[in-house]
Amino acid sequence: MLGSDGESLYLLFPNQLDSANRVEAGAALVLPRSRWKVKAGGPPGQNQLLVVVSDGPRDLAALGGSAAGPFVKALTDAQGRAQLQWLMGTNAQAKNVDAPCAGNACSDAFRSALLTVEGY
Predict the structure, then answer these.
(1) Is the separation of the CB atoms in 62 and 87 below 8 Å?
(2) Based on C-alpha coordinates, what's the Rg of the chain?
């Protein structure tokens, strides 16, 4: 989520309270879950939510950043944005030399959607 201040970038899910982010085909995923909530903050304006699904795992720790409660606050500078783009297109399993890829296991394919949430 890119906050309405244009500077705060948070990885909301998975997080320290909920790392079960695998979604089965045809299943619904409702967020936030009852174990964690997101409280609106910051100045009024638009928050941008980038929702990403992939057919393989991603190494989200590679995004870097610092803890912000159960979430991760990442960098919004050019390097941070480039890291996010690289991360979304790189399957974590492809780097595992002990378990070579078989079939579609190391696909870099993903889909994304950008949502706008207006804060008042």
Answers:
(1) yes
(2) 15
The pair phi, psi for residue 62, each rounded to 5°, is: -70, -15
Task: Per-residue pLDDT tens, the chain, 120 aa: give them.
Answer: 988 888 888 899 999 999 999 888 888 888 888 888 888 777 899 999 999 888 888 888 888 888 999 998 887 778 877 888 888 888 877 666 666 666 666 778 888 999 999 988
Distance separating alpha carbons of residues 95 and 55, to the nearest angstrom: 15
pTM recorded for the entire structure: 0.79
Burial class (CB in 10 A: 0-12, 13-18, 19+), 13: buried
Residues in the chain: 120
The answer to whether 10 and 71 have CB atoms below 8 angstroms apart is yes
Contact of 110 with 53, CB cutoff 8 Å: yes
